[in-house]
Amino acid sequence: MSGTAKPVCGVCGAAARPAFRAPQPEIAPDLDMRPGEPARSTLADWIQTCRRCTAAAPDLAALPAEARAAVESADYKELTTSVLEETLPFRRWALICERIGDQANQAEGLLQAAWAADDAAAMSEAAHLRAGVAALWAGTTDIEIGLRRLDVLRRAGAFEEAASWADTLAGRTQEETATAIIRFQRSRITMRDLGRHLISSAMPPPAHAPHVSHGKRATTGFWSRLLRRS
């Protein structure tokens, strides 16, 4: 696409908006890496939906041609009437990713749907969606994804599986930040805590301005990578 061309839906060619760019978060992310405010409140803008064909994606213009089959499938159309409205764009995007073989974005789409369900106070739906994310991430060897999976399992109420996964992660890393997060999660699992917690809550002091202070003292390495994802 040239610099002057207007974006169009990759499935049907209808005019599309440019991809949304969330503002830089100023607050620490959650343990599952949902970004803090002000980015957090823009969740509903993250997925575009084509007005003509109902394709859904962060960037409609980037959809590959093979996404058409997913959009025209009975399963895709059924989502309109079978899922919570607030989660619909994310569920559509996740289904497209599943059909085109993009498991990484499928998991992210389902997790974002869980966040939308959280905002709608639909806790059962949020837990169901998180269970799907945990299944997709079950074989990960990436420590950052593994830590996010730990939070997903806990918040889905899968406490026994979360405890077992915490043991698995603890055997894979001695990194200070990861170890602190695993320790914090173990305490929350023991308490049968389903709630949301900031990633800074898992870190040792300084705690006056945790997101800023930890970011300053960790400009490289694991903690810095986590902050850059927010």
How many distinct folded domains? 1
Name the strands of the widest sheet in spatial order.
1-2
Identify the quaternary structure here: single chain
Structural class: mainly alpha
Mean pLDDT: 90
Radius of gyration equals 19 Å
The outline comes out as: elongated
Distance between the termini: 29 Å
Largest sheet: 2 strands, antiparallel
Show unreliable segments: 207-221
Order of helices and strands: EEHHHHHHHHHH
Per DSSP E runs of 2 or more residues, the count of β-strands stands at: 2
DSSP helical segment count: 10
Helix coverage percent of residues? 40-55%
Approximate strand percentage: under 5%
What does this structure look like?
The protein has 230 residues and is mainly α. It has one domain (39-229). Helix content is 50%, strand content 2%. The protein has a two-stranded antiparallel sheet. Helix 4 (103-119) packs antiparallel against helix 5, helix 6 (143-155) packs antiparallel against helix 7 and helix 7 packs antiparallel against helix 8 (176-190). The two termini are 29 Å apart. The model is unreliable at 207-221 (pLDDT under 50).
Main features:
230 residues; mainly alpha; two-stranded antiparallel sheet; 10 helices; 2 strands
Explain the layout of strands and helices.
Blueprint: E1 48-49, E2 56-57, H1 67-71, H2 74-82, H3 88-100, H4 103-119, H5 123-136, H6 143-155, H7 159-170, H8 176-190, H9 210-217, H10 221-229
Antiparallel strand pairs: 1-2
Helix pairs in contact: 3-4, 4-5, 5-6, 6-7, 6-8, 7-8
Summarize the structure.
The chain is mainly α and 230 residues long. It contains 10 helices and 2 strands; from the N terminus they run ββαααααααααα.
